[in-house]
């Protein structure tokens, strides 16, 4: 069908070097209310900076309301408050340094510092109801959410605070055993009933919580985290629904609460790993009964209201750990394996490229074959590279794909002497 390599380049790939090269992406996003931006790792500088470029344009040109990320609610809510408070002069690095759960580099990095600085500056000229928010969708922050709920409700709603204390007592015997993977293998029955009662009570009384801005939202999401965390950890221990599905369903439930809170015209930008945003139905995840955020959001909002963009690269470096909780370090990302989409793009184009699948039948046909697509986690072993590829039908998994020929490691805030230094993206360069 395509007579030459040049024809393939000219027909399929758009050069991706400057902000202006994003124009076709902005045009195709159109009036979507949900824009999901992926990443092939949690430790790559270029994924963060390109997502920041897209995010800024979505805010400035299309009026997006808030950013929702694959992070813990309490930590991200502290950023949200800082972004919206013109009187808070805390240095951005000190705000981000409050991310203490491993992997700390995922949000406590200079790339996020640059975006947060830009957002705070942008918000400074806006009325309260127009300020851009920053929220965490994840379910991991069980203990922090419990403490926040108890302390806050003791001041604002003593009656409901009793329910929160009961829920806390239900979980507290297992706090010392929290290894992130399986806390509740011996938890007494009824813990989830306690937090469900709390969630119902909080939702019925949110109109009372006026002690601070967005206090009602903060109370509701923290109680939601408590309700779903018990279910998540039980699943991790083998006592219930698959933990992946519990986690992604929680993230969508949190997202729906945020959209409802921000009103009928709200628009959200979602930052998560490709494995969460790229539609699971177009991968082998579906064969294992797994769903993800991208699939669930598309099912809830069919048509052009949802736009998903994935990211990937051919080779480079990344921040990751050898095992869960290990010290972070820079690792080499080897050239993509020959059976992968990244290798295909390297051979056919060999430069950074924007690929828009939506409404391009020739392009959809060219990528119709199921192909391996690299996914690097926070724990990474380059020597086991072949195990890092998810079989994917790219045009069904994403509406667009941003391919980067070579990428570099993220810049964590917690830099040791002789470390990798501060990138030139700080403070407002991205």
Automatic annotation (TrEMBL):
Record-linked CDD domains: Ere-like (cd14728)
Any Pfam family matching the protein: Erythro_esteras
Alphabetical list of InterPro entries matching this protein: Emycin_Estase, Hydrolase/PRTase-associated, UCP036794_erythomycin
Biological process (GO), any one: response to antibiotic
Record-linked Gene3D superfamilies: EreA-like (biosynthetic domain), EreA-like, domain 2
Protein name, as recorded: Erythromycin esterase family protein
């Amino acid at each position: 069908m395509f007579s030459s390599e040049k024809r393939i380049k000219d027909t399929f790939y758009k050069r991706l070097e400057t902000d202006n090269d994003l124009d076709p992406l902005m045009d195709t996003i159109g009036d979507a209310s949900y824009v999901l931006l992926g990443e092939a790792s949690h430790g790559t500088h270029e994924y963060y900076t390109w997502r920041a470029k897209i995010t800024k344009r979505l805010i400035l040109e299309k009026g997006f309301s808030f950013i929702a990320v694959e992070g813990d609610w309490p930590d991200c809510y502290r950023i949200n408050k800082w972004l919206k408070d013109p009187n808070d002069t805390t240095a951005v690095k000190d705000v981000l340094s409050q991310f203490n759960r491993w992997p700390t580099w995922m949000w406590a990095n200079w790339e996020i510092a640059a975006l947060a600085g830009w957002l705070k500056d942008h918000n400074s000229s806006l009325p309260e109801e127009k300020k851009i928010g920053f929220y965490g969708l994840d379910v991991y922050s069980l203990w922090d959410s419990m403490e926040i709920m108890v302390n806050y409700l003791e001041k604002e709603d003593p009656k409901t605070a009793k329910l929160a204390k009961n829920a806390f007592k239900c979980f507290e015997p297992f706090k010392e055993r929290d290894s992130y993977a399986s806390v509740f293998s011996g938890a007494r029955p009824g813990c989830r009933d306690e937090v469900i009662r709390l969630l119902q009570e909080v939702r019925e009384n949110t109109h009372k919580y006026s002690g601070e801005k967005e206090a009602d939202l903060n109370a509701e999401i923290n109680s939601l985290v408590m309700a779903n965390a018990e279910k998540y950890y039980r699943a991790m221990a083998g006592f219930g629904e698959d933990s992946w599905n519990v986690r992604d369903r929680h993230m969508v439930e949190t997202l729906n609460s945020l959209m409802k809170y921000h009103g009928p015209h709200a628009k959200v930008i979602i930052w998560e790993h490709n494995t969460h945003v790229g539609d699971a139905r177009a991968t082998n995840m579906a064969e294992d009964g797994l769903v993800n955020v991208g699939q669930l959001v598309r099912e809830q909002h069919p048509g052009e209201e949802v736009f998903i963009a994935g990211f990937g690269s051919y080779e480079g470096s990344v921040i990751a750990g050898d095992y869960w909780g290990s010290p972070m370090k820079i690792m080499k990302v080897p050239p993509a394996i020959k059976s992968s989409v990244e290798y295909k793009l390297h051979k056919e184009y060999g430069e950074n490229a924007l690929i828009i699948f939506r409404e391009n039948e020739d392009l959809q046909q060219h990528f119709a074959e199921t192909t391996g697509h690299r996914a690097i986690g926070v724990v990474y072993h380059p020597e086991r590279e072949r195990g890092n590829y998810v079989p994917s039908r790219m045009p069904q998994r994403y509406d667009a794909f941003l391919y980067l020929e070579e990428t570099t490691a993220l810049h964590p805030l917690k830099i040791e002497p002789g470390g990798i230094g501060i990138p030139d993206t700080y403070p407002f360069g991205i």
